[in-house]
Amino acid sequence: MTLQIDTLAYTNRLRWLAPEQKLLFVITLLILTAFSRPPLQILIAIWISNWTVLYAKIPLRIYLKLVYIAILFWLTSLPALVINGINIQHLNLIQDDSIIGLNVASYYIYISHHGIEQGWTILARAIASLSCLYFVMLTIPFTEILQTLGRFGFPVLLRDILLLMYRFIFVLLNTASEIFTAQQSRGGYCTLRIGIKSLSLLIGQLLSRTLENYHQVSLSLASRGFNGEFKVWYPHRYHFSKRYAIEAIIGCVVLIKLSWG
């Protein structure tokens, strides 16, 4: 999935649009997301998704898979928000909050109305924020994001750390895939006990090989006279789009009016 995302960032239909313009657009929407209510956040998510799928021509199947992953994480945290418990002696304190519940020993376990509202608020904000971030991930190559941050005065050290982290994501995924395939071909996950043992071996080998790759990268950088800053070349073939700028400004103005209206 990561490799596919990286490929789409280089081949999407908005590739020619200046990254500064796209980043400014997304930052504005993120600020609106932070200070708006769930209905408006859902509207922001739909609008930026329209830019991603219809304008950038990102395949809908891939985009929905990314959104599904985010919703899956939300679902894992939902029970902790919705299900509450209280001593039966204090049952009168949650009369208005309890939707349905049952007695378990000396406790009353119930589904909280406030918890459902809180879960909905978290989902709306998370979907809107992630939709904005997905737009950046799928339309701007990572190295160009770093170059743009550099033009705005982002520290060189932090940019280099981000670049190395991005590079090692691919190394980590590739190494894990190779080890997992080798283990699976030898029946390493045929039973639960063997699977747990194989997983522990995979994690150990993954750490060992990652450290080895890091050492090799350090040696290669030293042999090439690394001076403390990564130099990444890319052709600056972008241009500013008045049409997209006008559409973005009008949309943001409408969202601001809806937010404060």
Automatic annotation (TrEMBL):
Membrane topology: Multi-pass membrane protein
GO cellular component, as recorded: ATP-binding cassette (ABC) transporter complex
Record bears the keyword Lipid metabolism: no
First-listed, main subcellular location of the protein, grouped into a coarse class: membrane
Keyword NAD attributed: no
Keywords linked to the UniProt accession: Cell membrane, Membrane, Transmembrane, Transmembrane helix
UniProt xrefs under InterPro entries: ABC/ECF_trnsptr_transmembrane (IPR003339), Cobalt_transport_CbiQ (IPR052770), ECF_CbiQ (IPR012809)
GO biological process: cobalt ion transport
Highest taxon above the source species: Bacteria
TM helices/strands, residue ranges: 23-48, 60-83, 122-140
Subcellular location: Cell membrane
Record PANTHER family: COBALT TRANSPORT PROTEIN CBIQ
Protein name: Cobalt ECF transporter T component CbiQ
Source organism: Umezakia ovalisporum FSS-62
